[in-house]
Amino acid sequence: MYGLLLALIYLAFISMGLPDSLLGAGWPAMHAEVGVPVSYMGIVSMVISGGTIVSSLFSDRLAGKFGTKWVTVGSVFLTVAALFGFSFSTRFWMLIVFAVPYGLGAGAVDAVLNNYVALHYKARQMSWLHCSWGLGAIVSPFIMGFALTHLRWNEGYRIVGYIQLGIALLLLATLPVWKTAKTPAGAERKKRLSLAGALKIKGVPFLLIGFFAYCAAEATAMYWASTYFAEVKHIAAERAAELASLFYIGITAGRFLCGFITDRVGDRKMIVAGTCVLTCGILCLLFPIGSYAVAVAAFLVIGFGCAPIYPCIIHSTPQNFGAGNAGAIIGIQLASAYTGTTFIPPLFGVLAHLFGFSILPYFLLLFTALMITMTELTFFLTKKERAAGAQK
Hints:
There is one protein chain. This protein is mainly alpha-helical. The chain has one domain: Growth Hormone, Chain: A (Up-down Bundle), CATH 1.20.1250. It has helices at residues 2-20, 22-34, 41-57, 59-66, 68-87, 92-120, 123-150, 153-173, 195-199, 204-231, 237-243, 245-258, 262-265, 267-284, 293-306, 309-315, 317-321, 323-355, 360-391. Helix 2 (22-34) runs antiparallel to helix 11 (237-243) and helix 7 packs antiparallel against helix 12. The longest helix is centred in the C-terminal third of the chain and has 33 residues, at 323-355.
């Protein structure tokens, strides 16, 4: 039964990935049609991420009241409504309105499923969970590229909306599969951990900063890859939309492969290795070559380097801070992460408007350096704290 349940959880994460890459892939055409500057994509992504922050902070309470399965199904249906709303949008304000339910749905399902897998499954399942997200994210740019070539960008959202609806109905029909799993040792707690209480735990503030920085870099690369190819490499919008899938291909392939070695290598070493690969990919974008071939390889490598970082940070949370605190801390982690995705891609859009999109690699390097510094400090402090506790 655990295997079938895990397959459903993977399917739910595929549904999360489907909408995530649509905005970046379609924006070169979308912004012109709705009559706003290219940098306004940051406003849409900010509203989406704002919704995810709110729902992530309340995810632990929602899961406690309704259960993981109902939060998951309800969240997927929220994103279905948002996708169809986008597909009928003809004005910029309409995009803003439908960005709200998408953000609320994405944040809640992300938090509850990450916590569930971190508590009940091994590191390899966590890696493959986020690989599932990548599968959905890979497909969408090709759907949007097809829509831009043969139809309109609205149809790209509508096609993905129908796919998402099918997944939502399947999850609803298979609710009986969700059985109450045995609570892992130490996961019980009499009182839910508050935000203020979490921040008092040694290492948590550094973890939140590190996760903020990582997701800021990932989201910037994700949202602006298509526009980078269009503006810097002068590629047609429909072709740029397809090339945006390179990042998702890299991150998905990387997470699939990481699943075979993460349990043996460990979360901390996987994060360091991923950071090294990520940095190499960013440096490739700095090569002074006019051809876009190097940029194609660079985004593949960037995605591959990102692959282990997010799932390993999440999976290490119960070990670092205790299973009883994991649900609340993961929800707060994701709120911190979505704060990065809310404010940093729009900031890049403003800076790119002023200085050009060629500043992308420098921007990514800055947040990558901040991320690895803060996560290493987190692991150092929590290891020291566990050692001190073992001596008592």
